[in-house]
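Table S2 (continued). Query chain:
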Amino acid sequence: MFLVPLIPEPENPHDSKAIAVYNENQTQKAGYVPKERIADVARLLEEEPVRCICIWETVKEKQRVNIRLLIARHNTRIKLP
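Corresponding output:
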């Protein structure tokens, strides 16, 4: 598990509501929040700080093809297994 930043992209030419998901150092874009989740995630980002943790990933032929994120309010206690 590792923290990942969520960065809104209002200048995105395909979707001004897009929210990008980056690696922990913000040097590589991993993808985007799915369109059907953007409204909920944008609301959380506007209301208060959040923590976003990558809890699962699928890698095929040395390339990440899917990640699953846990997005929680910053003060939420997250217990690791």
